[in-house]
Amino acid sequence: MRNLKFVIPTTLAIGVFSGGTQAFAQNKWTEQGPGPILNDSNTVLPGGSLVAGAINAIVTSPSSPDVVFVGTVNGGVWGTSNATAGVPTWIPLTDTQLPQLSVKSLAMSPVDSNTLFAGTGSTSSFVGGPGIGVARSTDGGKTWTVLAGSTFKGRTITSIVPTVPTMLNGRSTIFAATWPDKGGVYRSTDNGVAFTRISGTDTSGLPNAGVTSLIVDPSNANRFYAGVPGVLPRSSGSNAGAQAGVYRSDDGGMRWTKVNFGLLGISKSVRILLTIHNDDTNNIVYADVIAANGTLSGVFRSANQGRSWTSLGVPNPPIYPGGDTEGGQGDVHGAIAADPSNPNVVFISGDAQDIQFDKMGNPIKNANGCTTFNANVFRYTGTTWENVVCDGADGTAPHADSRFMTFDADGNLLQANDGGIARLLLPNNAAMRFWLSAVGNIRSAEFHSIAYDPLSNIIFGGTQDNGTPVQLVPGSITWNQLIGADGGVVAIDANQVSHPGMSIRYSSFQTFGFFNRSTWDASNIMLGLEPVGLAIMAGPGAGKMLLNFDRNISFAQPFALNAVDPARMLIGTGNLYESLNQGDSLTNLGSLGGLRVGCNASGDCSGYGRPIAYGGKRSGVKFPDLFYVGAGNKIFHRVLSGDKPRTLDYPGGIVVTIAMNPNDYKQVYISDIDNRIWGSSNEGKTWINLTANLSPHLTPQVTTIEVFSPDGTVANTTLYAGGFGVFQLADPSTRRGIWTPVIGSDNLGIAPALAMDLHYDYTKKLLLAGTLGRGVWLFGAGTPTATASGKLPSTSSLSIAGAAAKNRPPAPRPVVYPRPAIQ
Fold first, then answer.
1. How many angstroms from the chain centroid is the CA of residue 232?
2. Which residues pair with 384 in a beta bridge?
3. From residue 75, how far is each of 294, 462, 568 by CA, in Å?
4. Is the pTM here over 0.90, yes or no?
5. What is the pLDDT of residues 135-184, one digit of tens each?
6. Which of 756, 795, 792, 747 shows the shortest CA–CA distance to 776?
């Protein structure tokens, strides 16, 4: 399979742009990346620490290390036939084949290497798509069919396990496991078309509970192991309780027996991960048990098919350093892989390193030799645990937050994480092993907030665990990371009257960390960067700093720049804060009555929409004091500075996004948590439900909206909605309107990842879409063509062959453009 080629599959679709004034002179979607992101702050890899969005699963060819498939958290399935190149070329295989792109598990048929199975369902640290079933390809990923949709709708398939024909039934079976929905194990005897649930039945022996890991014994296609944890994640209740543990089947998955002797911490486990080493003389099973608080409880080894287990202890320092105080992330992150060449060796990984800082803010090298929040990976030597990152891997380390590990055909370790995929060369050679990036051009970044700079034609945005990346040049799919960690909400002040020749960009990391503004010129060169003051000068908390005063700061803290005076800013927590000087000085306008801005029904405030609209116009007159703010299912509205905000009589659910007509502030539109669209043309006095055929017919989720209106009239207004795709509604003055997909003149639409943020730029006539899992897309006239940047690292210097010839990794390259000191 070394000569395997991938063809990007396409399907024809018909879209009509109608009604009102046309927003675009040219109708076409253009993908903008990023793929890759350079200089990730939580990665220490040669060539600029390339990363991409999170990856959940890896499948390797048994005969070639160059052929690899991955399942991304929210960006579908990708494949490459040159995985060992310095910058592998990856092809998206499911963009036009699946209605949603959240993939949790992936497997290759042991009977036919052209047959792939993908288990759907999101495990994103933000949100994502509910499970849609099992996706199957029988032609190496070119085309896909969704199977068993009714069985697995809304479920996350943690494991998908195709098998070889057995003597028991003479045909291959397909197994699937789901969690945390408590579905458990399912079995198919018709190549995945239909599945029957096994867990919880009277004869199976499996409890009525979810399964976090399901594997088949390579030496016996009738033998399976299932990890059944005791509790559900985040203190949400019991899974199997006292019935938790490892279960084994010896009859093709029909009857199961608990094999727990020697296993500890099972009843309070939140995940149990399994792996097998098998050769001619050894059949070894390993279990990774993760406790309810998300930390590693123990690692265990069995040499007799699970009849008894021996504890291998746990590595030190911990692989989930949150510990008992903060808790680890083991309910999502972590992986285990048995070494294929040594029955006594197993690799495990967790989330991030524990890094401390000196009084000057400089990181202190920890026991593993790490100075960044990179991955935590250990190897059990047969007698003890040894670190295989930083000092244990010639100073190299992949991105934090592991999700899966496996070995390629050459015996090198591949690891999937929230920064993509990396390869550990010579994993069993302590003196020579090192990590290399394998992300290449995978474009799987999970954006929740985006902005477009019309001065330089550059896009930037806030992502899940890829920080705030910035496009290198217009149209480039190669981006650079400005600041790391989880990127916050971003905004752009491109007012050329107040600061000609410069734009001001706002960004932060999680919980408003290092909220900053940076200035840039028309060539995308950063001229300066400084923290935003956030000093409360009036109202409750006067004399204090916002982050020290307010305990309701959200993970992705909502704020908005004023649409008619971008030097003004509005920040929403459980209070409203207004600034007239770029966020340096704040006036606390008061409490929102116990409600919080940007939170969902479960109290999750990790980045829900754009619930603040600030500043507007009517009949050409500017109203800079105007705002609409959504908190819970209430909308607070003010027109003039001296007015007390009033609560509108709004009939919808929890507010996700608010969008105003830019030329008539009385026209306001809402997307709510129930996936409905509401519109008002009279400042919220009356509302029309504009959802029509949008949800659930076109998309089961609606996450964001945007308004195009050149003159303020409803007749010339087009409303855009983001979900699994982007959709448009012309003349939203009547509930009888019909939504249609935004599809280009080439009959292609945006990839069906969840569109989290939409912005229309009137200066360039561009619609900008940021997706959770497939990066950023542009639609409209003058759209730059996405290309790989010439600033990528040299592929020859980063290739496995090139690095191995020198017996060490190539030296890291410097940051692509300067980062001035914080002023």
1. 21
2. none
3. 26, 17, 36
4. yes
5. 999 999 999 999 999 999 999 999 999 998 764 455 679 999 999 999 99
6. 756
